[in-house]
Amino acid sequence: MSNILSVFNPPPSRPYPPSPDELESQCLPCTAIQSIVAIGGGLYLSSPNQFKDKTTGKIDLRKNPIWWQRSVRGAGIILFGLGAYRAGEVVQILYRKRFG
Fold first, then answer.
1. Which stretches does UniProt call biased (Pro residues) (predicted)?
2. Containing domain of residue 58, as a range?
3. Which pLDDT tens digit goes with each residue over 15-35?
């Protein structure tokens, strides 16, 4: 059905707010992917490898001063923490589905 026809013939209404079971089943894939991406990005940002020169393997302090390195690593740690939190939510959803 096109968008124009749905204006004149709207779909039937759904209950609002949705039930917790319905909401969890819709959120599970997105939460799992968000968790994986946040943990991976956090691990990458918290490692010192992105600051090293490709040829020499040393960190150039003119390009990347210490304050910049620490702020990027801090953001990586925060991102890793967010990913771990979201992974905990995924585990809770799966636990409720299986045992609840």
1. 9-20
2. 27-99
3. 777 777 676 677 889 999 999
